[in-house]
Amino acid sequence: MISSIPSATTCPPRMQPKMNVAIAGVSNGLGHWIALALLSNPRFSVTLLTRTKSNDALESLITKGAILKVVDYGSSTSLAGALSGIHTVISTVWIHNNIVPMRSLLQAAVAAGVKRFAPSEFSFSAAANVDLIPYHVKVELWKEVQKSGLEYTAFRNGLFMDYMAAGSSVPYPGLLTLHPYILDVKARRAEIPGTGDERMSFTTQEDVGRFVAAAVALDKWPEEMGMEGETTTWNRIVEEAEKVVGERFTVSYVSREQLKERLKDIPEDNWMGRFVTAGNLAIIDGKAAVIPYLNEATDVKPTNVSTFLNKYWGS
Question: In the 8-state DSSP scheme, what is residue 113?
Answer without folding.
Answer: T
